[in-house]
Amino acid sequence: MHLPACLFAMEPKALLCALFSLLLLTPAVGARLGGSPEVVEKSPTPQNGLGRTPQMGWNSWNHFTCNINEQTIRQVADAMVDTGLAKLGYEYINIDDCWAAHDRDSQGNLVPNPSTFPSGMKALSDYVHGKGLKLGIYSDAGPRTCSQQMPGSLGHEEQDAKTIASWGIDYLKYDNCNDQGMSPQPSFSKMSRALLNSGRNIFFSICEWGIDNPATWAGGVGNSWRTAGDIKDEWGSMTSNADSNDVWASYARPGGWNDPDMLEVGNGGMTTEEYRSHFSIWALAKAPLLASCDIRSMSKETKEILSNQNVIAVNQDALGVQGHKVQKDGNQEVSKRTAEPMLGRMS
C-alpha cells in the first residue's frame, strides 16, 4: 500500500486529505466512484441485535499477552473512564487468552485461574459494569485455546455460553486454534446458537484469521469476523492487514463487520505519524476500534490519536459502510460507493 504524504501531517485538513486519498487508494472503492450503483446481496445479521456500528473498546492481548490479572483489568476499566475514552464510545473491556484455569472443574465448567482472577468473573463483571462499561472474554473452537494454557469450548458450547452469561459477560472473542481439522463454519455457528440460547445478548467476535473467507458466510453468525492474520506492531504488517481486509469491503454492514485485528496504537513499534495513519485507516474501513496498548500509562500522543472525535465519527457513522451509501430496494441493498457519508463530518 502506497500512502500519500499528507497522511503524515498533523493538521485537520491534512487528515481530511488522508482519508479521501485512502478512499481512492482502495481498489474496490476508487474504481467505482462516480460509477453505477453496485448491487450487494443482502446478508443476514445475528439475532442478538448488537454491533449496529463497529465495536469500540480495549483488548488485553497485544500489550499483555498472557500476563493478565483482575487488578490489571480493573485498572484498565478505571483508565478508560478517567481518560475520557469511555465517553467517546470505547465501551468493551475484553480479556483475551489465558484467563481460565488449566482444566475444567468436576462438572465440566470453565473456571477462572484462581491465582490471577481470585475474585471470579462475576465480581469483575460487576466492577466493569459499575463503570458504565462492558466486559468481554475469550474462548476457542478447539479443545484447547491458542496458548494451550486453558480449555477451549469444543463440545462444551452450550455449557460455556450459559456460564459466561451467568457471569454477565457482554462479548466473546472466539478463536479457531486446535480445530481438529473441522470446518470453521459449523463450529462457529454452533457457538453462535449457544450464545443466542444463553439468555443474554453477547457480542460474538469470530477469529479464524480470514482463512475460509468468513465475510461470505459469517454475516448471520457473528457480529465481526477476522479477515487477516494476527497484526504485528509494524508498518508492513498493519498495511498488509488493511489490504487483506479491503477485499471484503462490500460485506460489512450494521450487525456484522470486517475485522483486520486490533489496534497497535501506542505499543511502541511505529512512529506517532504511522499510528495516526493506522487509526485513520481502521476508521475508514469500518473496522473495530479496539485499543490494545496499556491505556493506564499511554502517552499524550497516543491519547490524542485514540480520542480524535472526527476520525471516530467516520468509523461510527452507520449511514456509510466503508464508502457505501446504502439504500433499501426490496430484499436487496443497493449501495453506491461515495466519499460523502464517510467524510461529511470532517468539516
From TrEMBL:
Annotated stretches, region: Disordered: 327-347
Keywords from the named record: Disulfide bond, Glycosidase, Hydrolase, Signal
Enzyme Commission code: 3.2.1.22
Reaction(s) catalysed by this chain's protein: Hydrolysis of terminal, non-reducing alpha-D-galactose residues in alpha-D-galactosides, including galactose oligosaccharides, galactomannans and galactolipids
Composition bias type Basic and acidic residues, residue spans: 327-339
Signal sequence interval, chain numbering: 1-30
SUPFAM superfamilies: (Trans)glycosidases
Biological process terms in GO annotation: carbohydrate metabolic process
TM ranges: none
EC class (word): hydrolase
Protein's name according to its UniProt entry: Alpha-galactosidase
Organism name: Panicum virgatum
